[in-house]
From TrEMBL:
<protein>
    <recommendedName>
        <fullName>Tetratricopeptide repeat protein 38</fullName>
    </recommendedName>
</protein>
<dbReference type="InterPro" id="IPR011990">
    <property type="entry name" value="TPR-like_helical_dom_sf"/>
</dbReference>
<keyword id="KW-0677">Repeat</keyword>
<dbReference type="InterPro" id="IPR033891">
    <property type="entry name" value="TTC38"/>
</dbReference>
<keyword id="KW-0802">TPR repeat</keyword>
<comment type="similarity">
    <text>Belongs to the TTC38 family.</text>
</comment>
Length: 466
């Protein structure tokens, strides 16, 4: 039966099941609601619906959490049995699911790349690629897939603005921010209720404009995104603007009044990443967000400690354990060491694509965060400085990964290595020229450096013109 949008043929016999699958793919792409129940209903109607089974299976193999092996095997057994009668596109989707089920995300993306080259309007494959590339930090590949999808998608298609916003995001992450903004504004004009476009614009504003413009944008468009799945993350972006403006009281207001009420024991790990990195930024700036706020994060995500998990997740879990002076809290110190030990095992024993990232980044970064909480700032520098060009392999976004660069900068300041701190601030500041927090740090370190030069001159060393 042919798909209504692309006319690509699938082996499904039920028009009702195919319609449910198509509706699910639309929700998958436009971020406007949960699509999983629709896919499950499609499978209930037609047990051998290959594409629906593959989509369900790949979503179960979430790179950020541990999948349920029984459920994954159930879907895999069905599609493997269907493989001989599947068409070429379906066979590629089955191969993608097989690789994802083994944790081989890199291999899965290679197959998805083949699918999107041959079938550029297969938006199931396009969106899955988008998610996987975001987890591996391969934004050039993401950009290439989305450029093809946007080119082949008719502008009158309801999904066009949403694909355009995801393409804009890939451009923003590959430093093509002017073109990204142009496409993002077009996307929002075509479809104002467009959570990913709002999200992408938040990134662009943070990197290229005054943070007050970011506050104005998110507050003025709040009705368009506050009931979407990305509301929590956009609140994080709003908090970053307030932090850049030096308004830490508003950061904590957003945390308490808007973010914490959305938490539950089943909250996704993305909430952990946002909450922990936000409070860690305050911690770096010597602003105490209060023990009770850290405890909220730990109470919600305690079950993640010691569980095999993505390096990106564990690094943020460590932040929620290593704030303040961790050596004074033996319970937190024990939990932090447990995270590191589980990461060490994971990096050596897991077959996941992330195990090499755990070895390269996860273990040393977690050790560095612990060292920061122990006030061993020289150790932080020795662990993290050699890795700063590899942070992209964590995945996430450039805005999210900046927390690690800020950690290095603040460790250098606390280690009294002002020349290194100044160099790193200049590097980051050149990419965010309107960031008031970085400008303040720059002035502070520059003044301190000049003061030290002056002291040395007074002590009789060679005079230095400043």
């Amino acid at each position: 039966m042919a798909d209504k949008r692309s006319e690509y043929v699938s082996s499904v016999a039920s028009s009702e099941a195919l319609q449910l699958y198509n509706e699910a793919v639309e929700l998958f792409v436009n971020h406007k609601g949960s699509f999983i129940d629709l896919v499950k209903r499609a499978v209930e109607i037609e047990n051998d619906f290959i594409l629906a089974r593959c989509l369900l299976g790949c979503m179960l193999c979430d790179v950020y959490s541990v999948p349920n092996p029984t459920e994954v095997k159930m879907h895999l057994d069905v599609v493997n049995e269907c493989y001989p009668k599947a068409n070429d596109r379906e066979k590629l989707h089955i191969q993608t699911f097989r690789e994802a089920s083994l944790g081989h995300i890199k291999k899965a993306t290679e197959i998805l790349d083949q699918i999107t080259m041959r079938y550029p309007q297969d938006f199931h494959a396009v969106k899955l690629s988008f998610l996987y590339y975001k987890s591996t930090g391969e934004f050039i590949r993401m950009r290439n897939i989305l450029s093809r999808a946007v080119t082949h998608c008719p502008k009158e298609d309801p999904l066009y603005p949403h694909l355009l916003s995801q393409y804009a995001f890939s451009l923003e992450e590959t430093n093509e921010r002017q073109y990204a903004e142009e496409l993002c504004r077009e996307s929002l004009t075509l479809q104002p209720i467009n959570p990913w476009a709002s999200h992408t614009m938040a990134h662009i504003i943070e990197e290229t404009k005054d943070p007050q413009k970011g506050v104005d944008f998110l507050c003025s468009t709040q009705e368009d995104w506050n009931k979407t799945p990305y509301a929590f993350h956009l609140l994080w972006h709003l908090s970053l603007y307030y932090l850049d403006l030096g308004q830490s009281d508003k950061v904590l207001d957003v945390f308490d009044a808007k973010m914490v009420p959305l938490l539950s024991k089943s909250s996704p790990v993305f909430y952990l990443v946002d909450l922990a990195s936000l409070l860690w930024r305050l911690n770096l700036l010597n602003i105490d967000p209060d023990e009770k706020r850290w405890q909220v994060i730990l109470d919600t995500y305690r079950s993640k400690i010691g569980v095999f998990s993505h390096s990106w997740v564990n690094a943020h879990l460590m932040m929620s354990l290593c704030y303040g002076k961790v050596t004074a809290d033996t319970a937190r110190l024990a939990l932090a060491n447990q995270v590191i030990q589980s990461m060490e095992v994971y990096s050596k024993e897991s077959v996941s694509s992330d195990c090499s990232v755990a070895d390269l980044l996860g273990v040393p970064v977690c050790n560095a965060l612990l060292a920061y909480g122990q006030e061993k700032y020289d150790e932080v520098l020795s662990l993290m400085l050699p890795l700063r060009y590899d942070f992209i392999k964590f995945g996430g976004s450039w805005a999210q990964r900046q927390v690690f660069e800020l950690t290095i900068i603040m460790a250098a300041i606390k280690a009294n290595d002002l020349s290194q701190a100044l160099a790193l601030i200049i590097e980051l500041k050149s990419q965010k020229p309107h960031n008031k927090m970085l400008e303040s740090l720059y002035r502070r370190v520059l003044d301190e450096s000049r003061l030290r030069i002056g002291v040395k001159t007074l002590n009789g060393t060679a005079a230095i013109e400043t």
